[in-house]
Specification:
Strand order of the largest sheet: 2-1-3-10-4-11
CATH topology of the largest domain: D-Maltodextrin-Binding Protein, domain 2
Number of strands: 11
Mean pLDDT: 96
Strand content: 15-25%
Largest sheet: 6 strands, mixed
Distance between the termini: 43 Å
CATH superfamily of the largest domain: Periplasmic binding protein-like II
Order of helices and strands: EHEHEEEEHEEHEHEHHHEH
Radius of gyration: 18 Å
Helix content: 25-40%
Shape: globular
CATH architecture of the largest domain: 3-Layer(aba) Sandwich
């Protein structure tokens, strides 16, 4: 039987989801392909994978899609690893570099700047990690993922996008969800969901297996991240898709 190709993101925040996918029985049915979020989105759009953990903003680009299972990369408030970083207060920012690894975060930032913060800086799509060295003076930058932990040690002002979304909408935010471009068998989805669930039961062990000096991973996994795609997160995801469509 041909294995189902699964696109995964190589960030620390996905470890509790990926843990179970690397173990039987689901591991015998799938082939894992990893990259950063925007690249994984391209893989799904191009049909290079069958199901992937993709930025929610990409859903508008898919002619057909199915949300797979009941897990996601979400937050009930402060996410810690998706933020606008700056040396000056928000109202003094003149330029903003946009993280090339992101889609949902870029869309969310544009929404916040226009509808909530009321600022209109020059937006510059970054092409590689060199842009982080340019975050100084009146030039800010959106940084996501593990690199945001590093940036937190450098920048004076940190505007957390998860927190800002919660302030406006009162809803949690879903940065990425498991999405397929075709309907997958119910039996597979059940095993896939069980694999995602298995990592939630051993957060302490996963944090210990991935020693990290810049941030307390147990705190990150339990306080900042919220993996269950519950009704409130689905409402938040629907709201986000509505606002970026209007933009």
């Amino acid at each position: 039987m041909q294995k189902i190709r699964v696109g995964i993101v190589n960030y620390l925040n996905t470890k509790p989801l990926i843990y179970g996918l690397k173990r039987p029985p689901i591991s015998e049915l799938i082939e894992l392909k990893g990259n950063y979020p925007s690249k994984v989105a391209e893989m799904l759009i191009n049909g290079d994978v069958d199901v992937a953990l993709v930025p929610v903003a990409v859903l508008h680009q898919l002619p057909e899609y199915h949300i797979v299972g009941n897990y996601c990369i979400g937050t009930e408030g402060e996410i810690a690893t998706v933020a606008l970083f700056s040396e000056v207060p928000m109202e003094e920012i003149e330029k903003v570099y946009l993280d090339y690894q992101s889609r949902s975060s870029v869309a969310l930032l544009k929404y916040l700047m226009k509808e909530y913060w009321g600022i209109k800086p020059l937006l510059i799509p970054a092409e590689n990690d060199d842009y982080r060295s340019l975050i100084k003076g009146t030039t800010a930058g959106l940084v996501i993922g593990d690199r945001a932990f590093e940036q937190r040690k450098i920048s004076t002002f940190i505007y957390d996008l998860g927190s800002e979304w919660k302030k406006i909408t009162g809803l949690p935010f879903v940065f990425a969800a498991w999405v397929s471009i075709r309907q997958l068998p119910d039996g597979f989805i059940r095993l896939f969901d069980e694999a995602n669930e298995s990592g939630q039961q051993i957060i302490d062990e996963i944090a210990e297996e991935n020693p990290y000096q810049l941030f307390d991973l147990r705190k990150y996994y339990t306080l900042h991240l919220s993996y269950k795609l519950d009704d409130q997160k689905r409402k938040g995801m629907t709201k986000f898709l509505e606002v970026i469509r209007d933009l």
